[in-house]
Amino acid sequence: MWRRVVYHPEVNYALRQTLVLCLPVFLFWLLGDLPTGFLLSLVPACCSIGGLDTPHKHFFKRLAIGGALFVTSSVLLQFLLLWSVPLPLCMLILTLLFGVTAEISPLYGRLMPAALVTAIFTLSMAGNLPVWRVAMLFVIGTVWYGLFIHLWFRLWQEQPMRESLSLLYRQLAYYFDEKYSLLTQHTDPEKALPPLLLRQQKVMDIITQLYQQIYMIPNLKHPRHRRFIQAFQVALDLQEHVTVSLHLPDEVQKLVEQSQAEAVIRHNAKMISHRLQVLADDILYHRRPQPFNMDNELSALEKIARQHPDNPVGTFCYYHFCRISRLLRRQKPLYNRTLMPIQSHLSFLQAIKNYCSLKSAAFRNAARLGITLAAGAGIGLTLNLPKPYWILMTIMVVSQNGYNATRIRIQHRSLGTMIGILAGAAILHLYYSQNLMLTMMLVLTFCSYLIVRKNYGIAVIGFTITALYTLQIIANSGMNYLLPRLIDTVIGCMLAFASSLWLWPQWQSALLRKNAHNALETYQQHLRQIFNMTNDVAELAYTRMEVNQAHNTLFTALNQAMQEPGFNTRYLADMRLWVTHSQFLVEHLNAMTTIARDQYVLVPALAQEYLNACEILIQTCQQRLEYDGPSGDPGILPIMESEDQDEREETSMEKHIERIMAHLTTMHTISSLAWPQRPHHGMWLKRRLREEG
Questions:
Q1: Phi, psi at residue 73, to the nearest 5°?
Q2: Staple 465 to which of 391, 409, 424, 540, CB 3.0 to 4.6 Å?
Q3: Is the pTM of this model over 0.70?
């Protein structure tokens, strides 16, 4: 029981965040200097925003860089204010200065918002504390945070990776269960496929996160780390077999009517899904897996496959269920593979060179955020607020990558702040003793961190009450900040929303055809690997993962585009159908990868013929996405007609290839129909796809 409490992801995270914040407060409370303890507790918030709580092979190096940036941001802001530089200009300068970190790598890019939050905290202390003392607070706070996190991850070995691996196995279980629980309802892709697409997106997001975590491990050869890598490779094999295509609705219906296949397949799927969830718990709670066997269930499925040899569904399910059962029983990957390489970060000089360009996404993001912060500081000065730090803090907290994420965060932040202020006003009227107030703050902090990753809006209520308590203890003026804080929150949310709409918006809708073009390119590369008679198993696994990740990027962009305002819904409906066929194509590629690895069944001449046909179809689709012309453009090559087949029976590989060619033909038709419905503004006015980069 204690394992489920201590190792639970939310409990473990809440306990860690509460201790790292509250221990400095407790220490300075014993020393009789409670305000300093509260000021010191602000630094861990900056470190968390900057990603300094991420286990990394260069953990202390990143900690030193982060601490140096915090001190630089704090000292620079104070000196700029002493030199009578206007606050809006100060915020713009700092944002553009630290924005170069995002050009180095995404992980280093998290240091920019952390440095800006440091500057905002410094703004609240400027004039009340000496410059050197504020800088020392950030130095001491960063050192404390680094030592605590290092010790925490020594005690809780590889907890972040355990949580991610456990979540991956659990999402695979949900995906598998949902896929085969609706076995007879796959006749309508518009209804059956969207839930599976969402499951597939979550699986691929976790796989990408695990790749990043693995490459941050300092010693991959350590036995404990090798076990994690092996469990991850097993999950990659499971993902390959779970996501293979079963889009044969007529054959499924025929088999169900002729036998008890539906009950047998569902029972096998339920057993596999349950085993995956058990393994997820075993990984998370440090338990050894129990023996597993499902030979009796598989024998019933094998019997159905033998009784109906003309129906491919029984054989298909038996083959892939056997492979999944073997993986779950042995807990070893089916074959050796090398993991995908992670993109290395740029050197500092190269990052500066790339950053000094209007085409740089990091520069545009920094400029957007800098202008928004400058506008917030200007509004604060107009309203006679000498230190509008809460407006600036709200902008930093609610600004996200993308319109929809920012909109949702604004809703949660504003509603949570409003409810928290009302609750805090009622509680502050009761005038608790200081010790009781500190105890309540401790409980509220723990409860807020317990739910913050799943219910941000509710957690904001607790954080707001805690902030009011802090002001009440430090300055005995918590009641005076109720209305100003609410107004500042509303102003900050409005500015962040306006910037997401009008300042270099990152519309995913404008990137749809580029992502579709990239996905087709990865499909073509993987087909070349499959039809290569001397294919390398590791390279085949690498390109298969690229295929799945490219489709996931396209699907994510489509989901975000459907939430963006003022977009052509008819075009999005057509692109949704395009992505649906892309998903079927990816599932067929997953199945073909397994066949190509186990037994290659095509002679070289036939393989080359199929490869040429697929490449022609892919290239026509790419040309239709790239060229801004009418549907009947003479530059587009006609689709190849299939030749008469011999009397021989088609192999499984050939059936998958023909379905892929059918999906590509449909995708080309959809592209031709969708193009006239495209928007006629912004990046869509450009004629050539290559100009979008």
A1: -60, -45
A2: 424
A3: yes
